[in-house]
Amino acid sequence: MASSSALSRLSNLHNHLNPTDPLSKGVKLSPEVTEALSRGHAVVALESTIISHGMPFPKNLETAKEVEAIVRENGAVPATVAILDGIPCIGLSTEELERLAKLGSKSQKTARRDIAHVVAMRANGATTVSATMFFAAMVGIPVFVTGGIGGVHRHGEHNHDLGFLEISALVIALVCFDVFFAAMDISSDLTELGRTPVAVISAGVKSILDIPRTLEYLETQGVCVAAYKTHEFPAFFTESSGCKAIHEMIFYFIYLFIFDNNLDINMKLKLGSGILISVPIPKEHTTSGSLIESAIQSALKEARDKNIVGNAETPFLLARVNELTGGMSLASNIALVKNNALVGARISVALAQLRQ
Ligand code: PSU
Ligand code: MN
C-alpha cells in the first residue's frame, strides 16, 4: 500500500501538472498565446535550446527577442516554448526569456525523452525541436520556426556489435589512420517529424551531420521535405548540400502548401507526420563553405578526442565551429534564424487566414 507521504507527493505532482491551465493539459500558455489560439490567429512556435545551448549570452537573448519581434512585425504571435520550474510554458514573458538566456547550459537540454523527467524534477528545460514540436501540436500550433534541426550524425553507419577481429581492426584503424567509428546517433527531431503533424521551418541541416543519410531517414519516417525557392536541400551555413530536396518542391510549393491546405489535408487524412520546409540562408550571410568545412572537421576531431557524445555533441560542435570561424558562424546562424522567422510568420498568417 502506498504510504501517505508518497500519496501526498503524487497529489502535489498532480496539482503541479495542473497550474492555471485553461486547457488542463499540464502546460501553461501565455495570455497572448491563449487569446491568439482561441481567436484562430496566427501563432508561431519557437524552440529554446537554440537560446540556452546554441548561442552564448547575451547574443542569445538579443537574438531571441529579435526573432520574436520579426514574428510580430509579420502578423503572428510568437510562442517560445520552455520548461520553467517543471512547468511547460508556451509563450514566454520577457523576464522568462531573460531567465532562460542567462541559465544557458545550466538548463537541461530537453528532447522528447527528457520531458517527463524535467517536469517531475521541477527543473528548467530548454526544448529541442522534438520537444517543441510535441508541445506545439498539443495546443494546436501548426507552424514552428527554428535554425537547424538535428539529424543523423556522421559515421553512425559503422556502429556494429563488434567481434575480436573487428575490434582489432578498429584499434589499428584508429591508431594508424585516425579513422573514427561513432555511435549510431540519430536525433529524435527526425522521429518527431515522422509522428507529429507540425510544419517546421529550418535552414536545412548542418554539415556537422550526415546530410544524405538524414534525408534518407526522413523518407523512412514519411516526412515531406520541401525547399524554399530552390531544388536543393540547404546545408544551414551554405545554400547547397549537394542533395536535392526529396520532392523538389520549389517556391510555388509554399503556395501549394498554403492554398491546397497541405497541412490540413495532412491532418484530415491523419497522416500524423510533419513537414520540413527548408529555407536557404540568405546569400549575403553565407559563410564560406571551405572555412566552415575545415572548422567542422577540426571540431569533429576534438569531439571524438574528448569523447563528447550523445546530446552534448551538437552544442559542443556549434560552439567550437563558432570559435574556429572567429564568430562568423554565429553571425550566419543569427541571420538565418531571423530569415526563417520571417518566412514562418508569413506561412502561419496565410494558414490562419485560410482557416478563418
Ligand atoms: N542545430 C543547430 N542549432 C541548434 C540545434 C541544432 O544548428 O541549436 C539544437 C536544436 O534544438 C535541435 C537539437 O533540436 O540541437 C538537436 O540535438 P541532438 O543532435 O542532440 O538531437
Ligand atoms: Mn543524439
UniProtKB/TrEMBL annotation:
One of its GO terms (cellular component) is cytoplasm. Gene3D superfamilies: Indigoidine synthase domain. GO terms for molecular function: hydrolase activity, acting on glycosyl bonds; metal ion binding; pseudouridylate synthase activity. InterPro entries: Indigdn_synthA-like (IPR022830), PsuG (IPR007342). Residues 1-27 are annotated as: Disordered. Keywords: Glycosidase, Hydrolase, Lyase, Manganese, Membrane, Metal-binding, Transmembrane, Transmembrane helix. The keyword DNA-binding does not apply. Residues 1-18 have a biased composition (Low complexity). The chain crosses the membrane at residues 131-150, 162-183. HAMAP family: PsiMP_glycosidase. This is Pseudouridine-5'-phosphate glycosidase.
